[in-house]
Amino acid sequence: MRTIAVINQKGGVGKTTTVANLGTALAVAGRRVLLIDLDPQTHLTLSFNVEPDASRPHIYDVLSGGESVNRAVHKVRKNAWLISSHIDLAAAEMELVSVVGREVILRDALAAMKRKFDFVFVDCPPSLGLLTVNALTAVEEVFIPLQPHFLALQGVGRLFETIALVRDRLNPKLSVSGILLCLYEAGTRLAAEVVQDLRQFLEKARGTEVPWADARIFDTIIRRNIKLAECPSHGLTIFDYEPRSNGARDYARLAKEVLGELEARDEPAAPEVGAQTAPEPRPEDDAAEAPSKPDDSGVIVTIA
Fold first, then answer.
1. How many C-beta neighbours within 10 Å does residue 216 have?
2. Is residue 233 part of a domain?
């Protein structure tokens, strides 16, 4: 079982979008996937058309000790399960401040899980507080969605410091395995320059003891796509909302890459500085794509 925290303390970079759509693509590929919404904003919960109310056990109940993690797991589609969030989670950090072992509550809860999964993804809040530390303590891998802008790159350094601290003190198995470029605009030179700076930074870490020594930038890039922004408002993933959009193609490709099944002919990939790239379609062009009809499962995506 691969346990992965999707984390970036900067908001709006694609964390929830990645957890929802990468998780769905892996589920369509036949993998059993558990998605955990650890953000009080409940965006991952809403992305699966689940109301974040108190009528069913959620992640706050698990962290506060009020419910078993097994009762909080709910199936949202074939091969995909969700532990939903709730606004009460916003108070969890203050409520747990005096609890002994508060940093490992999620880890201990997942250890008691009866169901077996191939992937567990944790959608982290946009902060580096106790909830995020719980996520980092409970997993073995970290995926970092990153918008290729200068200020977003600056924040990665602080995030790496937190990951290193958690590995040193709480979770020696923790490592950064991948950085995912989201909201990518291929027509800008800035994006390619940020990618080059990031590659150079990671290359300097090779052979060291830092948690990101073996991290890589995913070949797959997630292009800026209006359909990805629209689908959560309908309680749908991109594969249910617009399976022929660029967003669906990008996340299907990412799933192949995570599974180690990516072929060289699969596109797109992050270009080098100076590379000539076709301009990204404008939102109005993307909105004009011909609507497609899902198959019986409501999904049009194939991952060999």
1. 13
2. yes
Task: Provide the domain count of the chain.
Answer: 1
Q: How far is CA 3 from CA 7, 116, 138, 142, in A?
A: 13, 12, 8, 8
pLDDT of residue 211: 95
> Which positions ≥6 away from 7 have C-beta within 8 Å?
15, 124, 132, 135, 136, 142, 143, 144, 159
Place of tokens 């009528």: 55
Look up the CATH number of the domain holding residue 58: 3.40.50.300
Residue 300 lies in a domain: no
Would you give the DSSP letter of residue 191? H
Evaluate whether residue 304 is within a structural domain: no
Cα separation, 45 vs 235, whole angstroms: 9
Residue 208 within a domain: yes
Tens of pLDDT, residue by residue over 120-167, are 999 999 988 999 999 999 999 999 999 888 777 777 888 999 999 999
Read off the tokens for 162: 């937190």
* Element containing residue 71 per DSSP (H, E): helix 69-72
In single-letter form, the type of residue at position 15 comes to K
Give CA–CA dist 245/253, Å, rounded: 13
